[in-house]
Every structure is written in C-alpha cells, then in structure tokens.
Amino acid sequence: MSGKFTSILRREFNRKRFLVISLGTGSHISCEKYSAHDAAKWRVLGWLYNRPLVDTFQQASADMVDIQMSVVFQALYSERSYLRIQDDNLTGTTSSVDIATKENLEKLVQIGKDLLKKSVSRVNLETGLFEPVENEGTNEQALIRFARLLSKERRLRWQRTRLTPV
After folding, report:
1. Torsion region of 163: left, alpha or beta (phi above 0 gives left; psi -120 to 50 gives alpha)
2. How far apart are CA 40 and CA 62, in angstroms?
3. CATH architecture, range 1-163
4. For 80-110, how does the pLDDT look when each residue is reduced to its tens digit (9 = 90+)?
C-alpha cells in the first residue's frame, strides 16, 4: 500500500470497531501432477475434467483473500483483530466438502479440535505461507479473547440503550 493511502486509511478507519474471525473449510495437500504429454491430449473438456485450471483458480482465489485481509489489518496495526483458522494439510476424504459419512464427520471434528490447540498463525506477505505468531497463544485462546471482547461490547451497548431516553 502506498504511504499516503495507508496514512488516510489509518486515520479514517476506526480499527477498534472490527473483529474478524475467518474460519476456513480447509484445503487439501495437492499431490496431483500433470505431465505436458498427458495435457496435450486433453482438449477442451479434458482440461475441465482433469481440473488443473479449476483447482488453480480456486486455490489462487482463497490465497488472495488471505493475503488481502492480512495486508489491510497489518497496515492498520491491528493484526490481533483478524483471526484466520484454516487447515491446509487435509488429505483424503477430509478435504472434500460433500462427504458426510459418520466416519468422515468424526475425522473433521478431531481436525477441528486439533486446530484449536495450534498456535495462532498469520500469512507471511513475502512467502504467502501461514506462520505461527509468537506470544499470541493458541487458536482456542484467541477465540476466547474475541468472545470476551464481543461480550464486553454487547454489555456496553446494552447499558447505553438503557441510559438513552426514548
């Protein structure tokens, strides 16, 4: 971001008013490889059926949202107001959004519990990779902190409405 724009954004934007919790659906480890020899035979429908374009655009779109949100909150010096919880290492059926078997749902519940115990992480704008953040605790602790802030805000708003004459 340019210096002038960032300065205006910081001045005009009340960063204390926003808390963003971004819960990802997870993404799979891409192990698929495509050879030029095979791709040369695909034709138009083959490119859609084999999915390299769709997969690439979906992953790029998700990555850009993560990066853009991180840039905005870092520019506003309010990184702690943005929490992204995402597992980028899903494998097998756990990476699919449409397999609702009991076994798969139990695996997803366990993945969610494990994510709560992981350290808060943020995207490194130079590498595009999520890295653990020192001194911010676990995702569970961050969610508790957000819940307390929201609860405090609700109490303040409720008190204000009771004090305001109708």
Report:
1. alpha
2. 28
3. 3-Layer(aba) Sandwich (3.40)
4. 999 999 888 888 888 777 889 999 999 999 9
